[in-house]
Amino acid sequence: MNAYDELMEFARTTQALAQVAGRLGWDQETMMPRAAAPQRAEEMAAMEAVLHARRTDPQVGAWLEAAETTGPVQVANLRLIRRDFERARKVPARLAAEIARVTSMAQGVWARAREEDDFAAFAPTLKEVVALKREEGAALAEGADVYDAMLQDYEPGATAAGLEEMFARMRPRLVALREAVLDKPAPTALTGTFDEGAQMRLARQVAKTFGYDMARGRVDKAVHPFSSGSGLDVRITTRTNPVDPFNSLYSTIHEVGHGAYEQNIHADHLLTPVGQGVSMGVHESQSRIYENQLGRSEAFAVWLYGQMREAFGDLSVPDAQALYAAINRVGSGYIRTEADEVHYNLHILLRFDLERDLIARRLEVGDLEAAWNERFATDFGVAVDRASNGVLQDVHWSIGLFGYFPTYTLGNVYAGCLYEALRRDVPDLEGALSQGDLSPATDWLRDKVQTHGGLFQPRETIARACGEEPSEEPLLRYLEEKFGGLYGV
Amino acid sequence: MNAYDELMEFARTTQALAQVAGRLGWDQETMMPRAAAPQRAEEMAAMEAVLHARRTDPQVGAWLEAAETTGPVQVANLRLIRRDFERARKVPARLAAEIARVTSMAQGVWARAREEDDFAAFAPTLKEVVALKREEGAALAEGADVYDAMLQDYEPGATAAGLEEMFARMRPRLVALREAVLDKPAPTALTGTFDEGAQMRLARQVAKTFGYDMARGRVDKAVHPFSSGSGLDVRITTRTNPVDPFNSLYSTIHEVGHGAYEQNIHADHLLTPVGQGVSMGVHESQSRIYENQLGRSEAFAVWLYGQMREAFGDLSVPDAQALYAAINRVGSGYIRTEADEVHYNLHILLRFDLERDLIARRLEVGDLEAAWNERFATDFGVAVDRASNGVLQDVHWSIGLFGYFPTYTLGNVYAGCLYEALRRDVPDLEGALSQGDLSPATDWLRDKVQTHGGLFQPRETIARACGEEPSEEPLLRYLEEKFGGLYGV
């Protein structure tokens, strides 16, 4: 065997082990007996130690030096292996271990602080996390921009400067749109109680409608919906709320977007570095276009109205048009994960600015809550009433995820671009959606984006699918048209 | 850290990884999407490679040489680690890999041959397996008895000669008992159909009644019932049959015996070598005493009758005494896993003699089917009608399990001894059982057997619990009394 083949065999085994570790995570949220947690922590730590040793194995460096490549797939695999290897090599083992220790403890501290609406109880721990992440970022950056280095973990190729410029163009238009919409009366909401068994049956049916392959996946309940795994075993979770069937429905469609992406990567790439979604932003573009541009569209509401009446009996809204309006009600809430499409990106822009300031030492943890509340009042026109509705609402910072938040908005931006290209390429998209036929849309996404996995860089993946460089314009146009139409602004 | 502590830290991580591999096995039989099998095979192979590398790591040998011990727990841990290390060292890597390859292929060949009742289609593959296992056995035996060496994988300390003598004493009494019982009319069977949801509810309730801790376990359905895992995460499976509620009930109780054993090992031993059931024979003693001596007892039938009426409505048998008789109906079937207590050990004795002859080259695979059928006719008084009811019924030999079968009867023998000691130590055992209070029995088993895990050798574990050396006498007395009483012989 030559160096490339040897390296790929090694990488394939590493990827198989990573899939096992991921499945442990799925099990923990769905099946694990409740008293098993302490043992599970040791099992996960053992898996992580095995994976870390493989990722930093000096033999990988030797193979990388010796490997010769003959085509784009090989080039991409080497690029991805090299990135992981160099990242692991740059962070001292002591620091990596300390980050693992502190963040695993910090998540518990955050959860208790959130429960008690007490940011001060979390601040000392967050301070430790921020200090460690600054140190790690500096090690990764090697003199260049620290936040940029952090971004590469989630969105290779993205830069803080590029995101900042784009977000600066988005913010005034989003603020203007929310103000215009909130001046108008809100459409009627869907009310009633909805059988949770029927919700799960509808969720599974809708998952299949969106192309999720049940032979290579399964749908279970979990407190926080997620998608897990790559290749032939990609599992998703959802949740039910007896008075809100949209929660289950759109959680499911969102996770199906993530799951279908992983399922639709070309079979040749199974268990190779290229055989996974290329970045968080591109992943989120799939979950968002499934959930929003397709799942919350006027055309899809036509089909959905019939399905919901079949599942739940008579609804409190009279027709598909009213269901479409109810699905897309805009309201200024505190919580990112419950935000409508108009507000969602404003939540992200706030977090992006604050976390960049934290990492750049322009902001310290002691001033974080005040900074959050001030910005929230400016952008949302409402004062934060308590910490759990403000700075304590998200788990991300407690577990050391800095540089992750912007990928949510990047995903929305990519979804906007893809949707415009999809409508251009697929003539009667609305006709198909209104009959519950998602295949023209999901086939297009599979062939243009998903099948490639990590073959191209993230931004290149989107640019190739759209035939042009991605920008925020299509998303903003889509939002202004959709909500302008719905609210008559 | 001293050598012992370093070795134990290493062993603990290995044990945690082994738990992960075991949980993958559970997932495969209960939750895995059906099309995920090829990926799962790679994941399992990756885990096995990691575990094999750790078990044969030369550092383990160095630690074993340097480690000093100060008490019985440390002595036992070193003994168990040394056994695994030396076993792994004795078998050449090439041979281990070849056995893994051939047996994984052979299982499929066996399954197809069984389906088509065609032993000749399986024979060439079984020949390969037997040849490889003979070679492995010779490597393990280093000049001593090959079958004895194989036994050590499942029942450390057992010898073929010892088992042969014991089985020779059992066989005539078992044959005589089955002949006497089959001369009498059989009691009325339980008939009807039994809601499978109600069967699962009853299974979970009975599992708890027998002391299975649901906070550290769970009960799911699987094609073949099994128990999986140690410590804080021990899962069992069962199955349901709409016309046979005993199938679900006694599969559950049997697996609860295995699962409770693992759950009840002292918490200090978590994820250490001592922290697992000590042998297959002792494991089976727990599953058998739960299932048979306790679960199929006259006293327990009193409580069970009420539970089953509550679960299923009116039964076809009029009272607890009739239920007890129905549970313990004796019939001469072909299949080991469906055998009653009188016939079960005759099935094992047959397999023990044949597999010993195979390994010792006194019998070749080409003559195996004829040898099986001849012996079956002698001991069971019935001619085997087809291979799937005879030599092809069990998976064991196809996957290379030689030396495993006798542990089933050894488990029954141990259960007989334990039951005699239990009745001596617990005055009103029957009174408690008739009220569905299993705790006097399960507490005794926990404190006398289960809590020790691998602290003592298997036979010593039983001897300490019983206060005397184990023998077949108590089991035979129990069977003769129970079935003599039931059938009036």
From TrEMBL, chains A, B:
Binds 1 zinc ion per subunit. GO terms for molecular function: metal ion binding; metallocarboxypeptidase activity. Transmembrane segments: none annotated. Keywords: Carboxypeptidase, Hydrolase, Metal-binding, Metalloprotease, Protease, Zinc. The keyword Hydrolase applies. Its cofactor is Zn(2+). One of its GO terms (biological process) is proteolysis. Zn(2+) binds at residues 254, 258, 284. The active site is at residue 255. It catalyses: Release of a C-terminal amino acid with broad specificity, except for -Pro. Its EC number is 3.4.17.19. InterPro entries: Peptidase_M32_Taq (IPR001333). Gene3D superfamilies: 1.10.1370.30. Belongs to the peptidase M32 family. PANTHER family: CARBOXYPEPTIDASE 1, METAL-DEPENDENT CARBOXYPEPTIDASE. Broad specificity carboxypetidase that releases amino acids sequentially from the C-terminus, including neutral, aromatic, polar and basic residues. This is Metal-dependent carboxypeptidase. It comes from Salibaculum griseiflavum. The lineage of its organism: Bacteria, Pseudomonadati, Pseudomonadota, Alphaproteobacteria, Rhodobacterales.
